[in-house]
Design a protein that fits this description.
This protein is 45% helix and 13% strand. With 372 residues, it is of the alpha/beta class. The strands form 3 sheets. It has a 6-stranded mixed beta sheet, with helices on both faces. Strands 9-8-10-7-11 form a 5-stranded mixed beta sheet. Strands 6-12-14 form a 3-stranded mixed beta sheet, with helices on one face. A hairpin with an 8-residue loop joins strand 4 and strand 5. It is globular, with a radius of gyration of 22 Å. The protein starts with 5 loop residues before the first helix and ends with a helix. The N terminus is likely disordered.
Length: 372
């Protein structure tokens, strides 16, 4: 065999350095995230090992990364139930009503969580927060944990991101061609727009609600009805349509789907910036909730604390490709369009007041415009 070239040697050294850094980081995570834990935590860990696992429901992209990282740091297993947000939240609602809960935690579903909280179907998370690295305000944006519910007890936000941007096929929609939401009402875009169905919750509902907030009900009708918007059942379908050229403009997509295609070499996906609306601030699948009488209460407590720890949030943020609220989780590769910009005011949809007072009116308007 010949000698390696200088370029090959540099490449090998670079790879070795990356692997070394990764090894150091994961070891540090495993050692540090439990720092300062007391005897009560040790007892919970012992009981969790007897239970052996925790059951978590959420989007498919989160599954394996969380499974691997949780096993690495705790030795415990996750049974991950993957599916669309509406399917997972419908299941936990049914289980809570029947009193036969098989899922410990759901990632996502703040709206459903508000309803379950009011029905007294949720387990309080706040008393389960045991680790100093989780409860110390200095580790979090604004110096504190962020909750959806006003009582700061049941619906906790680990990561949040900017959404409410349209996505274009840049081979059809040229840069600078669409710069505002009102541009989408131009006649040349009729029949060329698709959106995640706003009647099914998730990103579709958030996007439509944002447009009603910005421009009113009449605008939503002009856009979705008069412009013949095609509705997709899932956000993933939207990006597939953009890539294939079926619809060059889509509303209500997810960063994970966008970045999956970009990593595969697709260069025609462009995320728009709208002058008349910078976007929503969403918790999305970063929100964690727990139904009453979960099947693995101790392993669940371990998962909750781990999820909010540095390694847990690093795993989540990397997998979901959106920022964590922890200030010590910085991932340079995250797409810029998900990151809140300093000095910009966004509509924060992940608050109890929004869900109780504003969202029902918006949902009513959507049904009036689009039908059941």
């Amino acid at each position: 065999m010949g000698h390696a070239s200088a370029a090959q040697r540099r490449s090998g050294w670079a790879l070795a350095a990356v692997l070394l850094v990764f090894s150091i980081c994961t070891t540090a995570f495993a050692e540090d995230w439990q720092a300062g834990a007391g005897e009560d935590w040790k007892k919970v860990m012992e009981a969790a090992r007897k239970e052996g696992k925790v059951v978590v429901g959420g989007r498919a992209a989160l599954g394996q990364p969380l499974i691997d990282a949780f096993k690495r740091d705790t030795g415990l297993n996750i049974d991950f139930l993957s599916g669309e947000g509406r399917d997972i939240t419908s299941r936990i609602e049914r289980e809570a009503r029947s009193g036969n809960v098989t899922i410990d935690f759901v990632l996502g579903g703040a709206g459903v969580g508000i309803g379950m909280m009011n029905e007294k179907q949720l387990t309080a998370l706040k008393p389960q927060l045991m680790l100093p690295s989780v409860t110390d305000g200095k580790n979090w944006i604004d110096g504190k944990l962020k909750w959806v519910d006003n009582g700061e007890t049941y619906l906790l936000i680990g990561g949040e991101y900017i959404s409410g941007w349209p996505v274009f096929n840049s081979s059809v929609i040229k840069p600078g061609e669409i710069t505002s939401w009102t541009d989408l009402l131009k006649p040349q875009y009729k029949g060329k727009i698709a959106a995640h169905d706003p009647r099914g919750g998730s990103t579709g509902a958030a996007a439509a609600a944002y447009l009603v907030y910005l421009h009113g009900e009449d605008f939503l009708k002009k856009l979705y009805i008069d412009q013949d918007v095609t509705l997709a059942r899932t956000p993933a379908q939207l990006i597939e349509w953009v890539v294939r050229g079926n619809y060059p403009i889509v509303i209500g997509s997810l960063a994970t789907d966008i970045e999956k295609y970009r990593r595969a070499g697709i260069t025609t996906i462009a995320v728009g910036e709208m002058s008349d609306g910078p976007g929503n601030l969403l918790g999305g699948n970063g929100v964690i909730l727990e139904a009453k009488n979960p099947p693995h209460p101790n392993a669940g407590t371990v998962f909750l604390n781990w999820y909010l720890s540095q390694p847990g949030q690093y795993a989540f943020s990397t997998a979901w490709e959106t920022p964590s609220r922890r200030v010590d989780v910085v991932i340079p590769s995250l797409p810029a369009y998900t990151l809140p910009k300093p000095g910009v005011t966004y509509l924060d949809q992940y608050q109890e007041d929004w869900y109780v007072n504003s969202r029902p009116k918006v949902e009513k308007a959507i049904i009036k415009i689009m039908g059941q």
